[in-house]
Amino acid sequence: QSIFVAIFFIFLNEDLREMLESTKESLKLEAMKRIVGLIARGKNASELFPAVVKNVASKNIELKKLVYVYLVRYAEEQQDLALLSISTFQRALKDPNQLIRASALRVLSSIRVPIIVPIMMLAIKEAATDLSPYVRKTAAHAIQKLYSLDADQKEQLIEVIEKLLKDKSTLVAGSVVMAFEEVCPDRIDLIHKNYRKLCNLLVDVEEWGQVVIISMLTRYARTQFISPWKEDGIFDENSEQAFYESDEEKLGTPQSKPYIMDPDHRLLLRNTKPLLQSRNTAVVMSVAQLYWHLAPKQEVGVITKSLVRLLRSHREVQYIVLQNIATMSIQQKGIFEPFMKSFYVRSTDPTHIKTLKLEILTNLANEANISTILREFQTYVKSQDKAFAAATIQAIGRCATNITDVTDTCLNGLVLLLSNRDETVVAESVVVIKKLLQTQPTQHSEIIKHMAKLFDNITVPMARASILWLIGEYCERVPKIAPDVLRKMAKTFTVEEDIVKLQTVNLAAKLYLTNSKQTKLLTQYILNLGKYDQSYDIRDRTRFIRQLIVPNEKSGALSKYARRILLASKPAPMLESTFKDRDRFQLGTLSHTINSKATGYLELSDWPTAAPDSSVRNVEVMEPVKKEISWTFGAPLKSDDKFYSDSGEEEGAGEEGTGSSSEDSSSSSSSSSSNEESDSESEDKNSKHSEETDSSQSDKSSGHSDKKKADKKKRLQLKKKAKKAAPKERYQMHRPPTHHPLTQELWNLRTFTPKMAYTHTGKKKNRKQMVALFLCVQVSSPVFVPMSSHELLHRMTGKGLAAQYHFPRQPCIYGNKMVSVQLTLTNSSDHTLEDISIGEKTSSGQNIHRFSSIERLEPGASVTVSMGIDFNDSTQAANFQLCTKEDQFSVSIQPVVGELFLPVTMTEQDFRKEQGKLQGMNETSATITMAPENTSNQALSKKMVSVANMGVVPTGEDSLYRFAAKSVSSGDLVLVSVDLTDSSSGRLTINTEKTVIGSMLLRDLKTALAQP
Amino acid sequence: MIHSLFLVNSSGDIFLEKHWKSVVSRSVCDYFFEAQERASEPENVPPVIPTPHHYLISVLRHRIYFVAVIQSEVPPLFVIEFLHRVVDTFQDYFGLCTEAAIKDNVVVVYELLEEMLDNGFPLATESNILKELIKPPTILRTVVNTITGSTNVGEQLPTGQLSVVPWRRTGVKYTNNEAYFDVVEEIDAIIDKSGSTITAEIQGVIDACVKLTGMPDLTLSFMNPRLLDDVSFHPCVRFKRWEAERILSFIPPDGNFRLLSYHVSSQNLVAIPVYVKHNITFREGSSQGRFELTLGPKQTMGKAVESVLVSSQLPRGVLNANLNASQGTYTFDPVTKLLTWDVGKINPQKLPSLKGSMSLQAGASKPDENPTIIIQFKIQQMAISGLKVNRLDMYGEKYKPFKGIKYMTKAGKFQVRT
Fold first, then answer.
1. pLDDT, tens digit, for every residue of A739-757?
2. Most CB atoms closer than 10 Å: which of A44, A170, A463, A779?
């Protein structure tokens, strides 16, 4: 028959071959569909390879795709023929359409033919520098494929990975980290420079990439940061807030070194937290494990709610999540205790889910909730699922040993179960009672007697053996019953199971030693039976026992110790969770699930004892545009030259000062030159400067900053002593309470220089040249500043305090990621308002630079103050509290998208060049119709710049208008062009990497132009 | 990551295989079959099975096992979540995900799997992108295709993958612009013998069907967003906006999708809309047992409790049940011992009841445990938690969409212990 089938297939194949060679597309397609059907069913269709490969260049997309499927499946077996198709892909790699390039690379790299390795390598290298992020993503995928085909290419591939890791596109991030994990997971040094970028991109990466990045960052963080768990005692009691406050005090006593979290460590924790809300269970689990392995103990609690939510998902998800919760609940039962009821077992759960839930409930049991749990267990014991009932009995046993209050109750309950009809339940109860009695041998002779009574009815060997062992072990407590049991056993010895026989022999021996008068004959009888038993184990044991207990000439010295050997007090067995040692594996991994090391499992290292250098994560000249503000904005305010009297002699110092006045000098130092200085040195200079600043500005500083000043001085002295201290100490000295860690250094400086800008005489010229190399873009002063202001707080709601805000469109002096906002505060009440300030608590994630508090505001008077807000390039409102001495008012500033920019000037040529780089998905455009009033040259420009803070780019053409700006926070270019087709309509195009902002701006501009 | 995928039906046959890297012999599934044999119920097959060279991670949906073969360390949930996405996609494409449907559409299945994974790493899992790549088969299209020889594979290349809103396809056009939202809440509860609630939770979802032209930007606000204790979003929802203002702001995918799922804190008291009076007894030594069950509504705010279905797994010793239903029909399967009673709507004036006797195996001892009763029901036009949508606004497009919102409460895992 098999021959018949074979012949049938040959015919079938012939048929298909003919169809493939026909000229009709539809016939070819039909043939390919049938072939794919064969492949899907696991049938061999490799014979048709030559006929199929011919169609690789087909015009029909479906046919082509099916040929690809076939090719990838069989290329390995038909290597020579597969080479015929390569040239098609090579041609497609040069296609102008990015999707065709990507798909060609995808198939090419999937063909597992070693000969084409060099071709693949070349293609990958080229694709890695492709303009399209989608092609670059495909390149990242191809890296792994090539690596698995030829591991010798590792070095070259690492180079490509290094390049792709620098990529800023969210599309690429997940795939390249995947490649990194597969090819060179040990090259942690490649991550340093990209760490912060990865953290910041994470939320926007597609969900599968998020899982991979998070697990990689978990490993990374464990090697780079020091443990946040050091002072467990303090951590448990104090909230984060209190913890930081206590640091400030402790500064005086340097010998007790308090733990300060690295700001990068905090960044990771903060940026992953929103992902707990993901719909993807794998993402939620990976964030949960990250928190478990990296967060301070008191913060781990945030993950519980999300994990419990996952329990609503499919059974397979439940299984994995419950396993992880089981491991967690051993170490920190506190965090899951409020959710105890979510782990109650339902009769419809599969058995493995039930046992896991039971495990967790047992782990969570404590004095307070044990009665509830035991009541719940009572229901489970009666379950029809007997395996589960048995597991419940074990769980009761564990509760009884862990919580001494309920030991007796549990024992009594278990004894009741001894009369249960089900054998497995009885057997399990006996075994658990045995263990329990062993841990508490006092005065339980009643239970032993009861068990002895039940002995005749119990048939499960394990249970019988357990009872015999118990009676033997405590035979002195039940002197009357024990010999009787032995007598019964002597009768049935021959028909018992091996395990029971062994315990009978044991019992006999023990009784012989304690009560030889009554049992001597019985023992000898049993030993004789055992001597001729079929099982050699029992014969062995019998022989051994006989020599041990019956003294004769040959037995020698050993029998003297028989009593001590047999009746030694035995240590009680520990009733422990099976998940006790699971925490040696990283949570959420396959290894954790199967409880053994899976292939390719990467060990999570222990925290380093001393923090590695954190400056390795500093990124130099990453975003050159961003740096510009720090000096260009200073130019018009050039007034404090004298103040910088010493900046001439030490250029580096002046520069450092600049860095810290405008941005966080540690996170992204302002230029490469400053990086060359050692950390402690620059630190020192930095503070020197601040001090000077301080003194010269002391008249302006308020009471609040006075305090800071004292603080600072103290710190400065300290710092001089500890000049060579580890870099992490820097954070320790600078950390203000509850502040954005990245800008903490800044914060310190800012507080006593509230209204002042720095100017940079030092290297200004050099820097400008440098920047010119990067981009011919200059931040310019705003073309137009709208005077309209918006209401922040109405005088009625503000109890007399009215506030209005206005965007002055000046670069913010408090930080170059901030948008400056002017507040006009008016007192319209009839009494003086005191101490107007912004409250400490800001609910949203934005970073806000507060204005220094206003001590008095007379009735009718008004005052204008400026503040800075980092909107993070989104139009999300900044919420904060405006406080007076008596009241607090919650207010929010909702920025218009146009205010999130800074105008830049550039030449037309540069504009075109930049625009060319921002094609494709970075481009949004719309046709516009304009109100007749706006059509004139000037009116149009005016309209545009009033909507958004943009600079005008000069153009040669009449009907073409160009505007350029960059986003304040990230410094990405935003290029706007208006192309008028006729007098009242035209096309509006926006090119920017910030596509969301781009589309919002487009909308705003469109409506503005349509209005007169 | 994922090496190969095998689809196994309930009788243990592999009916589809797909490999993303080099071919893994299907004999690897023998380990799976072993585990399947050992498990008493189909659900008891462990989801993760280690074998000497590979690891098998499987999910069971619609009586089909999707067995993924893994070669090295990978988060198991990653694979499980992906497999469920595959099933969801099949369901989306073929209406139902059965062995027959998969076999009939084996080419589409293959094309889908090819797009969803590249080298074992997920590539395109958004249904909107996939539908642009591969058109779902419809009867009309199949007929047209056979006549004209055109294909299911999309002619134009998908741009969705490249856009900032990868979940939405571009160039959407509708003549009737409509957006419907279903707020569906499920009550999970365990009720004990005496009728008191042991645990009760509300799990809700908002499923949306959005058919809007262009790129609409929607905002949805609630009257009482504080009710939502724990939420998870479709990736389209802007998380920061929610954090700050408790408003759902999003550019929706085209078609059906789950916007939000939420959990109403278990600290709040959950109103249980039905009560059960029961009396199930087995007497020692007698071969008869009594069975009495009465259902009634409570705390339903005047809404009718509909589609009530009661089921219970009776003990193994029960041979047959002789019952009388005051309304609806009941069935008892003597093999699986499953009793189901299709009640329909509860009439508060005349409460439905099911009474009668059970005959037990002669000589068998009295069962230890009374059976658990599982109840399913639906209540239209009510969200039991009291969640209310305040308003839905659309920005970014000019037309006026038709908006609709529907509330429903259902029983989730609702069990009564007797």
1. 444 444 444 443 333 333 3
2. A463
Cβ distance B273 to B282 under 8 Å?
no
pLDDT surpassing 70 at residue A519 = yes
Position A383, amino acid? S
CA–CA gap between residue A374 and residue A377 (Å, rounded): 5
Asked if the Cβ–Cβ distance from A277 to B58 is below 8 Å, we say no
Task: Tell me the percentage of chain A whose pLDDT exceeds 90.
Answer: 10
Smallest Cβ–Cβ distance between B190 and the set A63, A319, A344 belongs to A344
Query: Is the separation of the CB atoms in A50 and A81 below 8 Å?
Result: yes
Contact call for A134 and B161, based on CB within 8 A = yes
B203 CB within 8 Å of a chain A CB = yes
Each residue's pLDDT tens digit, A755-775:
333 434 444 444 444 443 344
Name chain A contacts of B155, Cβ cutoff 8 Å.
Answer: 61
- Smallest CA–CA separation between B170 and chain A, in Å? 12
Contact in structure between A276 and A303 (CB atoms under 8 Å): yes
Whether residues B198 and A344 touch (CB distance < 8 A) is answered with yes
pLDDT digits (tens, 9 = 90+) for A962-989: 888 888 877 788 888 888 777 778 888 8
**Are the Cβ atoms of A211 and B75 closer than 8 angstroms?**
yes
pLDDT band at B286 (very low <50, low <70, confident <90, very high): confident
Contacts of B258 in chain A (CB under 8 A): 279
Collapse the DSSP code of A715 into the 3-class scheme (helix H, G, I; strand E, B; otherwise coil) and give the result. Answer: helix
Residue in chain A closest to B161 (alpha carbons) equals: A134
The enclosing H or E element of A925 equals: strand A923-929
Tokens 């280690």 correspond to what residue? Answer: B50
Q: Which residues pair with A819 in a beta bridge?
A: A811, A869
CA atoms within 13 Å, Cβ hemisphere of A906: 28
Contact A134 B149 (CB under 8 A): no
A547 CB-near residues (< 8 Å, 6+ apart):
A554, A555, A558, A559
- Distance between CA A645 and CA A655 in Å, rounded? 13
> pTM higher than 0.90 for the full model?
no
Average pLDDT, chain A: 76
User: Once rounded to an integer, what is the mean pLDDT over residues A576-597?
Assistant: 86
Q: Are the Cβ atoms of B77 and A285 closer than 8 angstroms?
A: yes
Whether residue B22 and residue A112 make contact (CB cut-off 8 A), yes or no, is yes
- Side-chain half-sphere CA neighbours of A117 within 13 A: 14
Q: Which residue does chain B place closest to A376, by CA atoms?
A: B198
Burial of A4 (0-12, 13-18, 19+ CB in 10 A): exposed
Q: How far is CA A657 from the centre of its chain?
A: 35
The phi and psi torsions of B416 (rounded to 5 degrees) equal -120, 120
Residue type, A278: S
A-contacting residues of B 237-256, CB under 8 Å?
239-241, 243-245
How far apart CA A205 and CA A177 sit, in angstroms, is 12
Residue range A702-729, pLDDT digits in tens: 444 444 445 555 555 544 444 444 444 4
Contact at CB, A208 and B121, closer than 8 angstroms = yes
C-beta atoms of B17 and A42 within 8 A:
yes
Q: What are phi and psi of A989, to 5 degrees?
A: -125, 135
Minimal Cβ distance to B315: which of A33, A274, A384: A384
End-to-end CA distance of chain A: 87
**Contact assessment for residue A126 and residue A163, using Cβ atoms and an 8 Å cutoff:** no
pLDDT in tens, A272-330: 998 998 889 999 999 999 999 998 888 888 899 889 888 888 999 999 999 999 999 98
Q: What is the ipTM of this complex?
A: 0.91
The answer to whether the Cα torsion of A956, A957, A959, A962 is positive or negative is negative
Q: Nearest Cα to A383, choosing from A423, A410, A346?
A: A346
In angstroms, what CA-CA distances link A709 with A137, A653, A659, A703, A705? 51, 20, 20, 10, 6
